[in-house]
Amino acid sequence: MTAVDGQDRPEPPEAANELDTLLGFLEFQRATLEWKCADLGADGLAAKLPPSRMTLGGMLKHLAFVEDYWLSRRLHGQEPQPPWDGVDWKAEPDWDWESAAADTLERLRELWASSVARSRVLTAEAVAAGGLDLMAGRPGRDGSVPNLRWILVHLIEEYSRHNGHADLLREAVDGLVGE
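RESULT FIELD:
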């Protein structure tokens, strides 16, 4: 059984193998974002701290995209799924952040949760197919081909960075503080 902290986030294991440690920290970071977005209405998810245009709703949509991009598109070589498949990323590089304002609260939460669920399945498939050394099936624009280990570390970094932003946004919305 996994220990949880006071916010029901799964504690990463303190003495585990590399894979379980990486997955433990990724799940902790995912749970941190979920906690920071919990119990907020549409206004809370749309709140901004000028001069930044960042919102918690935009963060949910952005991290849903990040999950799909790295684990579905890059690692498994799959084509983009809706809503990412219809975006002209060259014309609108911040589409995921900006378009969140037009989405409902339920849509943003469902989009993020379904991306995370899909990522968990795709990660398990990758582990079974080659473990942390499994190379991505699709190279990046620069030709780089990371392995699963790099992708998991990158996802932890991406969540950690944005969870810092989420701390500030949530505190501004209703005073909720905590790591």
